[in-house]
Design goal:
- Two copies of one chain form a homodimer.
- Chain A is of the alpha/beta class.
- Chain A has twelve helices and 15 strands.
- Chain A has two domains: 2-110, 2-Layer Sandwich (Enolase-like, domain 1), CATH 3.30.390.10; 114-336, TIM Barrel (Alpha-Beta Barrel), CATH 3.20.20.
- Chain A is globular and about 60 Å long.
């Protein structure tokens, strides 16, 4: 098996602002695993929030030696080896996991969703993300998102309530609110959520800092809509601590290390009666297609990372009225543009 | 997709006695799913302990209408439909699940373990089961089990300690003890386990009645070896209640409804830091081969159900010095004799 990778800069259509940061360009490393004349594509989209960037990804990928394995079907062993190379580097690990899945699908002449036993038409509609901005720009973005039935709105700043009110004035679509750890006390979070509930929002993602599980549990007793863990949830082993604190988890391949671990987390969360959101970073169509393969198992889908960029280096996944349309081509069904 | 099934009587080599019952013949229904010129084999081995017998299996299978599905790749949807047909009937459901997996492997020309990403050589050795009997017969069975490095001994009767002592006098092999709910008070269980611990046993399966989780939790605080849930654990949804009560679970395809649910339970139990045993009923090589496909993920393997019968209608899985040898043939690798 040959492993190659190359760095891309993903250019955002709008400056993307959340409670803790703002960016115009996001890093992406496209991974290729070649074996038996077939190339599987993967993607690593690192996030500084989890201690990763372009150089941690490329340094990690350079350490990987696949010569000890005979082919990508040895998924469990390969991913175990990769997993044991370090504690973190989960987006780098996801790049390998995704490329292996793409390769297997191509080798078997099956789309990955079919290989995994899913029905591609059972996927919920994705939300479309609206970053923090001026009220005027937010109103413009709501218009741009016309074809999407669900909006996910970033908050965690001083005018959260005004942002949501202005959107609610324009539309009666489902609104999901993502605070990205932006509220610093449980009392502030409670006050904001109770006021946001009056605007008819569906759920709140990550109201409190990731480690403040006590504050989040306190909050959960007092609010009336589901609380979804994003920064508090990285991979399945976290679930033990989140049960009873959050109502659900946002699973992202780049946080959890890939599709196989995502399935593990979906299964474990289901056992604990927790809701599943499948989300993403700013990613190309490679990463988004990979996450979308699993979305038949999701309660909520938030896979618009590729739609927010202007220079997606891949094509293969489409969106129609907010619904992701998975390809019938083998593997992930993505192609380099 | 065509669904057929036929009833078999599996004849035991020795009368098989556990704490609650004794039998010479065990029922098995072999399931066939035919599509596209390929036949996938499954098995339903019903147990009265879980409200199933020959007629509940065959009545359930008659209710299944697969005409609404296009092929066995629609695993998630088919198993969801089957699951919703009734609350129980899990061995009947397992028959379908196993046949679908066998079909998919044959269609893709891949052994199921490879399709699932596992390494067939990573499977732990299986234990060999010694049922309740006279001390003289038990000593004979220990000799018959010479090639197996691990013994699983059934207890839950008046002379439990004598049984284990007599085996320990003959061998220093790993001994696992299965009480099959046979001890009726936590005090009796505690006294027996503490005495059994002196004989160097590895673990205790199901010391207390399935519903007595409070008594089991009390017991767990006082013993020094792992407690494994068998009758207390049926499928992944039970795990929420068993966490903190047992150290691990015995997953059997016939209890949980098949391979896909077994993987779900393995993932969820891992998240909760619980140990995994993969076990079986008295089954032919079809059911045993199916369970063995997943055994790379197990801490303990107890898959000797086919070795205890005299008239296995299938072949395809072998055992060498206690280690199950999975076939490299497509699907489960089993063949009607």
């Amino acid at each position: 098996m040959k492993l190659r990778f190359r760095y891309y800069e993903l250019h955002l259509q709008h400056t993307f602002t959340i409670s803790r940061s703002s960016s115009n360009i996001r890093p992406s490393v496209i991974v290729e695993i070649e074996h038996d004349g077939i190339i599987g594509y993967g993607e690593s989209a690192p996030s500084e929030r989890y201690g990763e960037d372009k150089s941690t990804v490329t340094e990690f990928l350079k350490r990987i030696d696949l010569s000890q394995f005979s082919d990508p079907f040895e998924l469990e062993d390969i991913l175990c080896y990769i997993g044991n190379l370090s504690d973190g580097n989960n987006s780098a690990k996801a790049g390998i996991d995704i490329a292996l899945h793409d390769w297997i699908g191509k080798k078997l002449n099956l789309p990955v969703w079919k290989f995994l036993g899913f029905n591609k038409s059972k996927m919920p509609s994705t939300s479309y993300t609206i970053g923090i901005d001026s009220i005027a720009m937010i109103e413009q973005k709501v218009k741009e998102a016309e074809s999407f039935p669900i909006l996910k709105v970033k908050v965690g700043v001083h005018d959260d309530i005004e942002i949501i009110k202005s959107i609610r004035n324009l539309t009666d679509k489902i609104i999901r609110v993502d605070a990205n750890e932006g509220w610093k006390s449980k009392e502030e979070a409670l006050e904001k959520i109770l006021r946001l509930e009056e605007q008819g929002i569906e759920l709140i993602e990550q109201p409190m800092p990731a480690d403040d599980l006590e504050g989040t549990a306190w909050l959960r007793e007092r609010v009336h809509i589901p609380l979804i863990a994003d920064e508090s949830f990285r991979y399945s082993k976290n679930l033990r601590n989140l049960h009873g604190v959050f109502d659900g988890i946002n699973i992202k391949l780049m946080k959890c290390s890939g599709m196989r671990e995502a399935v593990r987390a979906i299964h474990a969360a289901g056992t604990l009666n927790m809701k599943i959101m499948i989300g993403c970073m700013i990613e190309s169509s490679v990463g988004i297609s990979a996450a979308a393969q699993l979305s038949a198992l999701a309660d909520y889908v938030d896979l618009d990372g590729n739609l927010l960029i202007a220079n997606d280096p891949f094509s293969g996944i489409n969106v129609l009225n907010g619904k992701l349309i998975l390809s019938d081509l083998p593997g992930l069904g993505v192609h380099s543009k």
